[in-house]
Amino acid sequence: MLTVDFDRLGLRPGDRVLDMGCGAGRHAFEMYKRGADVVAFDQDADELATVREWFGAMKEAGEVPDGAEADVTEGDALALPFADGEFDRIVAAEVLEHIHADVEAIKELVRVLRPGGTLAISVPRWLPEVINWKLSDDYHNAEGGHIRIYTDHELIDKVTKAGRFNDGTPGDAMVFEGKGYAHGLHAPYWWIKCAVGVTNDQHPLARAYHKLLVWEIMKNPRTLRAAGKVLDPMIGKSMVLYFRKPDAVAVPASSDAA
């Protein structure tokens, strides 16, 4: 299921886009279907190999527009192997909560985004995540698990200041353009999992709710779509923040006074 609203991001065919921390590739696949030139980036070589296979299968099946390209790149979020301003759009979905040096990762995202480009960042929403942490230490103590809980104000502050120079001058300071919430039906599932044991997949309540989520993902029935519209703003598990990098401003050449 998608977390990011690509219409809100401003995604257009032909855009060069980065899915940073792509995981299994759900956002990369959707952007590819929409005609973007996609780079799926992650540190997990095995997942990237699977994503590459799916890119090839999508192209062979005619699921992507002519001219769209997609590839994978393995690397470190703190040292992205891309040029300054290389991407028109960037997605970083459910990644930053895993990274200790999150400010450095954000600075890298800002660096490789072109002036005028847009960025979508999603993280677990504060209240649903706090409940998970309160219910279960195992939920967040797992290796590679969540290491922080963001408020919207904290993350907005970190991103909007990420383009500033060391002396505090604005530089390419990002502009916050709005937020949304997603996966309201998923928050109760994780509360159940944390209450009965995050690895206890066979608990009757966890199994029953999981079936509901599978039905949502596979069939997307009208009743669950309606429920999601109500629950997303209230308890949506994911918070999505949208930013824009200001257009480059030409600095006039100085001239000596006559």
TrEMBL record:
GO terms for biological process: methylation. It comes from the Bacteria. InterPro entries: Methyltransf_11, SAM-dependent_MTases_sf. CDD domains: AdoMet_MTases (cd02440). Keywords: Methyltransferase, Transferase. GO terms for molecular function: S-adenosylmethionine-dependent methyltransferase activity. Residues 18-121 form the Methyltransferase type domain. This is SAM-dependent methyltransferase. It comes from Nocardioides currus.
